[in-house]
Structures are given as structure tokens and as C-alpha cells.
Amino acid sequence: MYRIIKPIFFKFDPENVHYFVVKRLKWFNDKFPLGKTIIRSSFDVHIKGLEKEVFGIKFRNPVGLAAGFDKNGEYVEALNNLGFGFIEVGTVTPMPQPGNDKPRMFRLPNDEALINRMGFNNKGVDVMAERLRILKDNHPDIIVGGNIGKNKATPNEDAVSDYIKCFDRLFDVVDYFVVNVSSPNTPGLRELQEKEPLKKILNTLQLRNHKNDISRPILLKIAPDLTDVQLDDIIEIVAETKISGIIATNTTISRENLATEKILADEMGGLSGKPVKDRSTEVIKYLSEKSNKAFPIIGVGGIHSAQDAKEKLDAGACLVQLYTGFIYEGPGLIKEICKALVK
Ligand SMILES: Cc1cc2nc3c(=O)[nH]c(=O)nc-3n(C[C@H](O)[C@H](O)[C@H](O)COP(=O)(O)O)c2cc1C
CB of 236 within 8 A of CB of 262? Predict the structure, then answer.
């Protein structure tokens, strides 16, 4: 079915198609008589033996939706009904912000890839927190990750206060947190991946986290463009700050080995999909081996098939996430991966 619709979708601007589709999915799920039942019976994964407990959370299956797809936590229930084991919302910032000028998302069909320079467009953490509160009241079983960032206008020296604002506001309504310092689309953000600023952010969040009776797992999302030395620093930082794990990886700024014509490939932004697959797997393998499997890793980057997901798990990931593969392959990909994993 998706094979038939995809060429039509691919004729239109990717961001417009994205909102067109998710809005209709939500309407069908929430408003259409028997809509939920139809979505669930067509896509949801009812396979036993895929449950996994990672950082204290029980996941019904290991295939999650990566950050950036549902920036404001608007479509979580409908997306969950497609079969995902968990949904990561955001990146959200304390204040609403419009993101970069459009167009800011590009398809590279020859490489089964996307380039985006969205720039953390979102409605702000208050709007997200209120939405997720309602969701959690009605569906406490849906696993939601809160991916948090800083506003463009906030200088890096004050970044920690932005992460704290998002953390405090979302604490009661998400199951785990992701500190995003790896997006290439907020100027200077990736400098926060350096040892000192990163330790400051994570230590401050952990202090906050452990003041509460219950604490939430905090993960760090990293870029695929880090050097081995930087990855060694990451391993050290995880041990020192005692965060719960790593998400590897975000989009890449590299443009190596693309089949796409230069003018399109040279669009500014982060590249995702098939071209990032091997590097992302390499990063997972490096972290897993070098740290002696000291912490859980969520593997993301270029998963377009069950085999791609297996490669990430074999490299040391315990959960996986999809974004670009979900666009290119459609919602059937979730069940396809789950079926292959249970075998
Ligand atoms: C349009 C788009 C927007 C994204 N926005 C975010 C974001 O806000 N925060 C984030 O951590 N990652 C974001 N990502 C990165 C994805 O979560 C994922 O890490 C990356 O795309 C690699 O996975 P993929 O190859 O399966 O897409 C975005 C990716 C795309 C394609």
C-alpha cells in the first residue's frame, strides 16, 4: 500500500507532506469511528517475546520512533498505535521558536536520505508538557522519551539553564530524557559536546534528578561525526556523571559517497538515512567495545530494513530508533523488524 502512495507523497514538499500525513493519522485515530482499531489491527505489533527492560523501563518491543518526527508531542498515541515500542518527542526548547526559514527539509531519493536544517522549530516546553500530561493520564503505558535542547537565542554559557527548564517541566510526563547537544542546525550547539560544558550540563541535571524521590533515566544523544578521542571522552563522561546511556547517532554533516547531484547534496543541514548507517553502527560498536558494554546504547541512523536493525543490535545497541527509514519504507517497517527479531 505504502509503495503506491509514496511516489505521490514524494511529489510534494517533504515538510508539508509530513504534517499532512501525521494530522490525518491523528484525526483517523482520534475521531474516525473504529479508526484506532483499524490502525492497530493493520500495523500494531502483537508479537510475544520482544519485551525488553532497559534502564529500568519495560519496552514492549525494541523499535522506537526517533526524535524530530513529533517535535511537540502531538501525535504520540496515533504513532504508538502503528506499533512503535517507544516514542521520543522533541527536540523541545524552553521557549517556542520558529526554526530556520523554509524550505529546510530535502529528500535525496538516490541515496534514500534526507537533509534537514529545521533548527529546533517547536511550540515550547509548556505546550508539550500540557499535552503529555493529558496523554499520560489516558495512556500511562505508552513509553515517551523527552528530547531536550536549548533555544537558539540562549548563549552556550547559559545553556544549562535551558536544559534544566525543560527537564523540570517534563519530569512528571516522560519516562526518560535525552540531552541533545548534537544537532548541526543550532549554531554552536555541538560545541556543548566538549568535555567541560557537557559535564556541567549532565552533572547539574543529575543533581536535580536525584533530589526527587524517583529519578528518570537521562541519555545523551551524540553526533556521528565525533572522533575516537571524543568518543573516549564520552565514555568517561557517562561513567563520571552516571547517566543511563547514549543515543547514537544524530544526523551527520559529512557528504561523503553520495549519489545525489552536488547542488542538492550541498544543502546545509544534517544528513540522515542510508548514508549515515555504517558510521552510526561504527560509533555504537566503538562505544560498546571500548566501554565493555558499560551502559545501554540506543542505535539510530539509516535503519531501512530488519537487517539494518540487527546490525545495530549486533554492534551493541539494545534498542533502535527509526526516522528516515520510516519515511522511505512506511509504517510496515516496524512490524517487519519486530518479526525478524523474534525469529
Ligand atoms: C527532519 C528531521 C528532523 C530531526 N529532528 C531532530 C531533533 O529535533 N532532535 C534530535 O535529537 N534528532 C533529530 N533528528 C535526527 C533523528 O532523530 C535521527 O537521529 C537521525 O535522523 C538518524 O536516523 P535516521 O537515519 O533513521 O533518520 C531529525 C531528523 C530528521 C530527518
Answer: no
What is the number of domains present in the chain?
Answer: 1
34 CA from centroid of ligand 1 (Å): 32
Q: Give ligand 1 pocket residues (Cβ under 6 A).
A: 66-68, 90-91, 105, 114, 116, 118, 147, 180, 183, 221, 250-251, 272-273, 276, 300-303, 322-325
- Residue 182 is among the residues annotated as catalytic for this protein: no
Q: Which residue from 104, 112, 250 has its CB within 8 A of the most atoms of ligand 1, so it is best to mutate?
A: 250
Range of the domain at 237: 2-342
- Model confidence pLDDT, tens digit, residues 248-272: 999 999 999 999 999 999 999 999 9
Q: Which residue's CA is minimally distant from atom 28 of ligand 1?
A: 68
Rounded to two decimals, the pTM is: 0.97
**Burial class of 252 by CB neighbour count within 10 A (0 to 12, 13 to 18, 19+):** buried
Q: What is the pLDDT of residues 131-186, one digit of tens each?
A: 999 999 999 999 999 999 999 999 999 999 999 999 999 999 999 999 999 888 88
Q: List, as one string, the DSSP characters of 144-212.
A: EEEEE---TTS-GGGHHHHHHHHHHHHTTT-SEEEEE---TTSTTGGGGGSHHHHHHHHHHHHHHHHHS
Question: Taking the mean position of all CA atoms in its chain, how far away is CA 31?
Answer: 27
Q: What CATH code is carried by the domain that includes residue 124? A: 3.20.20.70
